[in-house]
Amino acid sequence: MHPQTRLTLAGQQTDTAYRSISLPIYQSAIFKFGEDGEKPQFDYSRSGNPTRAALEQTLADLEGGAGAVCVGSGMAAIATVLSLYPAGSHFVCSHDCYGGTERLLSWWERQGKISVTYADLSDPLQLALSLRPETKAVWVETPSNPLLRITDLRRVGSIAKDAGIDFIVDSTFLTPLLQRPIDFGADFVVHSTTKYLNGHSDVVGGAVIARTQEGRDAAFYAANAQGATAVPFDSWLILRGLKTLPLRLKQHEENATAVAHYLQQHDAIETVFYPGLEDHEGHDVAAKQQAGFGGMLSFAVRDGVCLRTLLSSTRVFALAESLGGVESLIEQPATMSHASMRPEAREAAGITDRVVRLSVGIEHIEDLLTDLEQALENGVAAGRRDAQRTHRNGSVVKAEAAHRG
User: ∠297-327-22 over CA atoms, to 5°?
Assistant: First the structure.
């Protein structure tokens, strides 16, 4: 069946007692053993729960993986995968990855547990040049966060296979409906289920999907041992959100495309980062490996625009760090989502103070464009006032210096 149909029906076979259409929330920490002491399928919810299992089965099916493990946050998913590798392992990672990913990798590197090379993986040759004998895996975000760079999954997968290293992809921005990295050789796919998969900004969660059963078993062992597995109610919320994912993604992308074209024509905008634009350097690769371009985009404002005023002027776009919910969000990565990233790492990745990231929601497009228009006007006007004030202050200083002379 089509993924849209499979998601609509997800969880319906979970309740064998009463055959409920809606997935039950098995809000129980423990389950009874059999009268003969036989261990049941589920005995303790950290190690297994019917509600979470239904979500894991659905995600594995969507990604084309052997199995999935759902955990308490997107960062828990990242930590679960990274914990599978021995001390001293070397990783190659997208240089403009999510700030929390860079924070965790850098923290573990400072502790001497791992080493990391950050590279622009939109050029797959950078991966080949970064490999070492101790390299264990390559970590890819595509589209990357926040500059929407595109990595050629097929080429990176081929390089990883030849090198005998694992291939891990954070596919949070696109979901399995728009991109399936396992089809291109990925060993693990991670998601922050907080984002598009849930889609309503009311739960925090993460997931690891493995290409093989061996990989799934290893990820489950790590998550269970570390106590990172997701709770039943959160799992229920995410699976409920998944049922409308195809419809939501369609509107997200339609709105994002319109916003990208609008910003591209605006005098206050220097660059728009959206793979759906034909002049985006990763457009052709994205069109081949993705089923759509998603609802995320970023842009850089020109000098002279007061970014603080722009960000505080929006009425529909909420100033907040997350993404993927039905509501539109706006943020400055350098001071918000990527503030924990080392300044030199942000600079190397091109994440300047003039970059703004949008998570385009499902509101009416005219309201979104009107909101951006008035916010940009306010930012431009404030920038002019600041420039005039600076000019006046400078003139005063020069006059006082001349008088003293």
Answer: 120
36 is catalytic: no
* Residue of 250, 356, 235 lying closest to 300 (CA atoms): 356
Calpha distance 214→65 (Å, rounded):
11
Q: Catalytic residue among 52, 180, 195, 346, which?
A: 195
Domain span at 151: 3-242
| 103 is known as an active-site residue | no
Q: Which of 52, 96, 98, 234 is catalytic?
A: 98
Q: Do 312 and 197 share a domain, yes or no?
A: no
Q: How far from chain centre, in Å, is Cα 235?
A: 19
- Indicate if 161 belongs to the active site: no
Domain count, the chain: 2
**Whole-structure pTM value:** 0.93
- Of 181, 239, 231, 232, the C-alpha closest to 210 is 181
141-168 pLDDT per residue, tens: 999 999 999 999 999 999 999 999 999 9
